[in-house]
Amino acid sequence: MAGALCVQFALHVLLVFGIRCTIVTCETTLSLDKTLVFGPGVNPKQGQLPLTVIYIQARDEDGNNYTNVTPDTFAVEHNDPSGRTLRMMEKYNLGGGLIVYVCRFYSDHLTLTLSITNDGKHVAQSPYKLRNVFSDYCSCPFRSPQQWQSDYECPLTDPQIVEDLEPFKSGINVSELSQRGVREYHGWSFIHYSIIGNKLYRRKFGTITDFHTLSDMTLLSVLHKVRLPDMELIVNLGDWPMNTMSRSPYPIFSWCGSQGTRDIVWPTWDLMRSTVTGMDSSYPLV
């Protein structure tokens, strides 16, 4: 019996000390050189976005994820040569050593220096030189839609957009459709938008049109970023799709759709609002 107890005690001691040794042996340190910094917030061509995002993936000396970090492990600073930078920043720990910093700018900058440090030492390729960092309130459109598309790394085409516009590839007269729509969709609420000279004009139809503020702010946000060709579009302001299969096809943009309708679905109104006004509850509803 005593022998068995001795063996059990010896195993217990070995297990405890073995665990302690393993913990000591496995301790790693944060590598500032191997830590990864990425996202649109460090892209020198990031351009103008409502919010900009910076990801930091902490790594150790062996290149493995280093998890002993918090959002306060790194200091993220934006500096303008003039010394004036207005921004709001929120930071989140996504786990696994991945930290995200979300920024909204209230000032406009042709050049800006982004510094990411840990205990005063630069991380990864910091400092980063950024250009054309504008707030979402700045009407600073790219002259060339192609250049804007390239800088924002937008795809040249999208299968869903091609499919949605297929019925209208031979061309349409939106003004004529708008007038016909007034007769066919009597009682529905929708807007006929016109973009002329990169300015937005609208005509409202129906009785409940308050949701025009959401499509207004979304289109104006795009016009602040890129000079668009003159165009017209119709936007459904209701909660249900309009263009049923029994009607002639209309190029109507809606927040919802179904297999029995032809409405062109774009992001829901709450997603539009949160994207444009993110981190700014005071954003003006125009």
Protein architecture, described:
The protein is an alpha+beta fold and 286 residues long. The protein is built from six helices and 13 strands. α5 packs across α6. The radius of gyration is 27 Å and the shape is elongated. The termini are far apart. The N terminus is likely disordered.
Percent of residues in helices: 10-25%
What is the number of helical segments per DSSP (H or I, 4+ residues)? Answer: 6
Shape: elongated
| Radius of gyration using CA atoms only | 27 Å
Order of helices and strands: HEEEEEEEEHHHEEHEEEH
Pick out its properties:
286 residues, alpha+beta, 5-stranded mixed sheet, 4-stranded antiparallel sheet, 6 helices, 13 strands, elongated, disordered N terminus
Short description:
With 286 residues, this protein is α+β, with helices and mostly antiparallel strands. It has 6 helices and 13 strands. The relative contact order is 0.11.
Topology readout:
Elements: H1 2-26, E1 36-38, E2 52-57, E3 75-79, E4 87-95, E5 98-105, E6 109-118, E7 121-122, E8 128-133, H2 145-151, H3 159-165, H4 174-184, E9 190-196, E10 199-205, H5 212-223, E11 231-236, E12 252-254, E13 264-265, H6 269-277
Parallel strand pairs: 11-12, 12-13
Antiparallel strand pairs: 1-2, 2-5, 3-6, 4-5, 6-7, 6-8, 9-10, 9-11
Helix pairs in contact: 5-6
